[in-house]
Protein backbone atom coordinates (compact mmCIF):
# COMPACT_ATOMS: atom_id res chain seq x y z
CA UNK A 1 0.00 0.00 0.00
CA UNK A 2 1.33 3.43 -0.96
CA UNK A 3 2.30 5.58 2.02
CA UNK A 4 0.86 9.05 1.46
CA UNK A 5 2.71 10.69 4.35
CA UNK A 6 6.34 9.78 4.97
CA UNK A 7 8.88 10.33 7.71
CA UNK A 8 10.20 13.91 7.95
CA UNK A 9 7.75 15.20 5.33
CA UNK A 10 7.29 18.95 5.09
CA UNK A 11 3.53 19.45 5.01
CA UNK A 12 2.32 22.86 3.82
CA UNK A 13 -1.24 24.03 4.48
CA UNK A 14 -2.60 26.77 2.23
CA UNK A 15 -5.90 28.60 2.19
CA UNK A 16 -7.95 31.44 3.63
CA UNK A 17 -9.02 32.40 7.17
CA UNK A 18 -10.15 28.87 8.04
CA UNK A 19 -6.58 27.72 7.51
CA UNK A 20 -4.98 30.93 8.82
CA UNK A 21 -6.91 30.97 12.11
CA UNK A 22 -4.57 33.47 13.78
CA UNK A 23 -1.38 31.68 12.80
CA UNK A 24 0.67 34.89 12.52
CA UNK A 25 -0.03 35.64 16.18
CA UNK A 26 0.75 32.14 17.48
CA UNK A 27 4.11 31.06 18.82
CA UNK A 28 4.40 28.04 16.51
CA UNK A 29 2.94 29.79 13.47
CA UNK A 30 0.16 27.21 13.10
CA UNK A 31 -2.77 29.18 14.51
CA UNK A 32 -5.60 27.82 16.60
CA UNK A 33 -7.55 25.81 14.05
CA UNK A 34 -7.51 22.54 12.14
CA UNK A 35 -3.85 22.87 11.10
CA UNK A 36 -2.69 22.97 14.73
CA UNK A 37 -5.03 20.06 15.51
CA UNK A 38 -3.60 18.02 12.63
CA UNK A 39 -0.09 18.72 13.89
CA UNK A 40 -0.95 17.77 17.47
CA UNK A 41 -2.83 14.61 16.63
CA UNK A 42 -0.24 13.47 14.08
CA UNK A 43 2.56 14.03 16.60
CA UNK A 44 0.69 12.15 19.34
CA UNK A 45 -0.45 9.25 17.16
CA UNK A 46 2.55 8.95 14.84
CA UNK A 47 5.63 10.37 16.56
CA UNK A 48 7.79 8.16 14.35
CA UNK A 49 6.91 10.37 11.35
CA UNK A 50 8.43 13.52 12.90
CA UNK A 51 6.48 15.72 10.45
CA UNK A 52 7.30 19.35 9.76
CA UNK A 53 4.12 21.44 9.45
CA UNK A 54 3.82 24.90 7.89
CA UNK A 55 0.73 27.09 7.73
CA UNK A 56 0.59 29.83 5.10
CA UNK A 57 -3.14 30.49 5.07
CA UNK A 58 -4.23 34.15 4.90
CA UNK A 59 -7.66 35.35 5.94
CA UNK A 60 -9.80 36.75 3.13
CA UNK A 61 -7.91 35.04 0.32
CA UNK A 62 -9.57 33.79 -2.83
CA UNK A 63 -7.87 31.68 -5.48
CA UNK A 64 -6.71 34.96 -7.06
CA UNK A 65 -4.76 35.98 -3.94
CA UNK A 66 -3.22 32.52 -3.66
CA UNK A 67 -1.96 32.80 -7.22
CA UNK A 68 -0.40 36.20 -6.53
CA UNK A 69 1.69 34.86 -3.63
CA UNK A 70 2.15 31.25 -4.79
CA UNK A 71 5.83 31.44 -5.67
CA UNK A 72 6.97 32.70 -2.26
CA UNK A 73 4.36 30.96 -0.13
CA UNK A 74 4.38 27.57 -1.85
CA UNK A 75 6.88 26.87 -4.62
CA UNK A 76 9.90 28.37 -2.82
CA UNK A 77 9.11 26.33 0.31
CA UNK A 78 9.36 23.03 -1.63
CA UNK A 79 6.83 21.03 0.43
CA UNK A 80 6.61 17.27 0.15
CA UNK A 81 2.88 17.42 0.89
CA UNK A 82 0.68 20.36 -0.11
CA UNK A 83 -2.83 20.83 1.28
CA UNK A 84 -5.05 23.47 -0.34
CA UNK A 85 -8.40 24.57 1.10
CA UNK A 86 -9.85 27.50 -0.87
CA UNK A 87 -13.08 28.66 -2.49
CA UNK A 88 -15.31 30.06 0.24
CA UNK A 89 -14.32 33.67 -0.42
CA UNK A 90 -14.49 33.19 -4.20
CA UNK A 91 -18.23 32.56 -3.70
CA UNK A 92 -18.89 34.74 -0.65
CA UNK A 93 -18.03 37.91 -2.57
CA UNK A 94 -21.20 37.33 -4.59
CA UNK A 95 -23.03 38.77 -1.57
CA UNK A 96 -20.99 41.97 -1.92
CA UNK A 97 -17.47 43.20 -2.54
CA UNK A 98 -14.99 43.16 0.35
CA UNK A 99 -11.88 45.33 0.29
CA UNK A 100 -12.09 45.55 -3.49
CA UNK A 101 -12.46 41.79 -3.94
CA UNK A 102 -15.20 40.53 -6.24
CA UNK A 103 -16.98 37.25 -6.81
CA UNK A 104 -14.98 34.70 -8.80
CA UNK A 105 -17.31 32.73 -11.09
CA UNK A 106 -16.89 28.98 -11.39
CA UNK A 107 -15.02 28.97 -14.75
CA UNK A 108 -12.40 31.35 -13.33
CA UNK A 109 -12.20 29.36 -10.09
CA UNK A 110 -11.57 26.22 -12.12
CA UNK A 111 -8.80 27.94 -14.07
CA UNK A 112 -7.21 29.45 -10.95
CA UNK A 113 -7.19 26.25 -8.92
CA UNK A 114 -5.86 24.23 -11.85
CA UNK A 115 -3.07 26.76 -12.28
CA UNK A 116 -2.19 26.58 -8.56
CA UNK A 117 -1.85 22.81 -8.83
CA UNK A 118 0.21 23.03 -12.01
CA UNK A 119 2.62 25.56 -10.51
CA UNK A 120 3.15 23.28 -7.51
CA UNK A 121 4.30 20.48 -9.76
CA UNK A 122 7.22 19.41 -7.57
CA UNK A 123 4.97 18.33 -4.71
CA UNK A 124 4.99 14.58 -4.07
CA UNK A 125 1.53 14.41 -2.51
CA UNK A 126 -1.28 16.86 -3.19
CA UNK A 127 -4.25 17.14 -0.83
CA UNK A 128 -7.32 19.10 -1.93
CA UNK A 129 -9.77 20.02 0.82
CA UNK A 130 -13.31 20.96 -0.13
CA UNK A 131 -14.49 24.49 0.64
CA UNK A 132 -16.96 24.17 3.50
CA UNK A 133 -19.89 26.52 4.16
CA UNK A 134 -20.78 30.20 4.05
CA UNK A 135 -24.24 30.56 5.61
CA UNK A 136 -25.81 28.93 8.66
CA UNK A 137 -28.52 27.50 6.41
CA UNK A 138 -27.23 24.41 4.60
CA UNK A 139 -29.72 25.07 1.80
CA UNK A 140 -28.91 28.78 1.48
CA UNK A 141 -28.18 30.26 -1.94
CA UNK A 142 -24.44 30.69 -1.40
CA UNK A 143 -24.05 27.24 0.14
CA UNK A 144 -25.84 25.70 -2.84
CA UNK A 145 -23.59 27.62 -5.22
CA UNK A 146 -20.51 26.49 -3.29
CA UNK A 147 -21.48 22.87 -4.01
CA UNK A 148 -20.46 23.38 -7.65
CA UNK A 149 -17.03 24.61 -6.55
CA UNK A 150 -16.66 21.57 -4.30
CA UNK A 151 -17.61 19.34 -7.23
CA UNK A 152 -14.72 20.77 -9.23
CA UNK A 153 -12.29 20.24 -6.34
CA UNK A 154 -13.32 16.57 -6.39
CA UNK A 155 -12.93 16.43 -10.17
CA UNK A 156 -9.48 17.99 -10.04
CA UNK A 157 -8.39 15.63 -7.26
CA UNK A 158 -9.36 12.63 -9.39
CA UNK A 159 -7.62 14.03 -12.46
CA UNK A 160 -4.40 14.79 -10.59
CA UNK A 161 -4.24 11.73 -8.36
CA UNK A 162 -4.65 13.93 -5.29
CA UNK A 163 -6.23 13.09 -1.96
CA UNK A 164 -9.67 14.67 -1.60
CA UNK A 165 -10.83 15.68 1.89
CA UNK A 166 -14.66 15.91 2.13
CA UNK A 167 -14.71 18.63 4.79
CA UNK A 168 -17.85 20.23 3.34
CA UNK A 169 -19.89 17.01 3.36
CA UNK A 170 -18.81 16.25 6.92
CA UNK A 171 -19.70 19.71 8.15
CA UNK A 172 -23.06 19.80 6.38
CA UNK A 173 -23.93 16.41 7.83
CA UNK A 174 -22.84 17.41 11.33
CA UNK A 175 -24.85 20.64 11.19
CA UNK A 176 -27.93 18.75 10.06
CA UNK A 177 -27.68 15.83 12.46
CA UNK A 178 -26.03 17.21 15.61
CA UNK A 179 -27.84 20.46 16.25
CA UNK A 180 -26.84 20.87 19.89
CA UNK A 181 -23.23 21.60 18.82
CA UNK A 182 -22.16 24.94 17.34
CA UNK A 183 -20.02 23.94 14.36
CA UNK A 184 -19.41 27.44 13.01
CA UNK A 185 -19.34 30.91 14.54
CA UNK A 186 -21.13 32.66 11.70
CA UNK A 187 -22.01 29.95 9.19
CA UNK A 188 -18.48 29.98 7.74
CA UNK A 189 -15.70 30.19 10.33
CA UNK A 190 -15.52 26.97 12.35
CA UNK A 191 -15.71 26.74 16.10
CA UNK A 192 -13.25 24.45 17.89
CA UNK A 193 -15.66 21.58 17.17
CA UNK A 194 -15.77 22.51 13.48
CA UNK A 195 -12.00 22.69 13.24
CA UNK A 196 -11.72 19.33 15.01
CA UNK A 197 -14.08 17.83 12.44
CA UNK A 198 -11.98 19.19 9.56
CA UNK A 199 -8.78 17.91 11.20
CA UNK A 200 -10.33 14.46 11.63
CA UNK A 201 -11.41 14.34 7.98
CA UNK A 202 -7.94 15.44 6.85
CA UNK A 203 -6.14 12.83 8.92
CA UNK A 204 -8.57 10.11 7.83
CA UNK A 205 -8.15 11.00 4.15
CA UNK A 206 -4.34 10.74 4.30
CA UNK A 207 -4.38 7.55 6.34
CA UNK A 208 -3.35 8.96 9.73
CA UNK A 209 -6.63 8.64 11.60
CA UNK A 210 -5.46 5.81 13.86
CA UNK A 211 -2.40 5.08 15.97
CA UNK A 212 0.42 3.07 14.45
CA UNK A 213 2.61 3.18 17.53
CA UNK A 214 0.68 2.86 20.77
CA UNK A 215 -2.65 4.08 22.11
CA UNK A 216 -2.36 7.30 24.08
CA UNK A 217 -4.06 5.78 27.08
CA UNK A 218 -1.09 3.44 27.52
CA UNK A 219 1.25 6.36 28.14
CA UNK A 220 2.26 6.55 31.78
CA UNK A 221 1.44 9.88 33.41
CA UNK A 222 2.75 9.26 36.91
In a nutshell, what does this entry contain?
The protein has 222 residues and is of the alpha/beta class. The chain contains nine helices and five strands; from the N terminus they run E-H-H-E-H-H-E-H-H-E-H-E-H-H. The chain has a single domain (10-218), classed as 3-Layer(aba) Sandwich (Rossmann fold).
Write up this protein.
The protein has a five-stranded parallel beta sheet, with helices on both faces. By secondary structure, it is an alpha/beta fold. The relative contact order is 0.16. Helices cover 41% and strands 10% of the residues. The chain has one domain: SGNH hydrolase (Rossmann fold, 3-Layer(aba) Sandwich).
Write the layout of secondary structure elements.
Layout: E1 10-15, H1 17-20, H2 34-45, E2 52-55, H3 63-68, H4 70-73, E3 81-85, H5 88-92, H6 106-119, E4 125-129, H7 141-160, E5 163-165, H8 167-177, H9 192-205
Parallel strand pairs: 1-2, 1-3, 3-4, 4-5
Features:
about 220 residues, five-stranded parallel β-sheet, 5 strands, globular
Task: Please tell me what the overall shape is.
Answer: globular
Distance between the ends: 38 Å
Tell me the quaternary state: single chain
Sequence stretches where pLDDT stays below 50 over 5 or more residues: none
Strand content: 5-15%
Total DSSP E strands: 5
Task: Output the structural class.
Answer: alpha/beta
CATH class: Alpha Beta
Amino acid sequence: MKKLIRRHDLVLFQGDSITDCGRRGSADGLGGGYVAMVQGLAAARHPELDLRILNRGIGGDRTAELLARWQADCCDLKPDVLSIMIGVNDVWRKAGEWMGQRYIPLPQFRENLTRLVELAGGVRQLVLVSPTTIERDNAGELNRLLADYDAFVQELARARGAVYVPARAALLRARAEIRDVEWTVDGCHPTAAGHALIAHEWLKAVGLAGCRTYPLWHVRTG
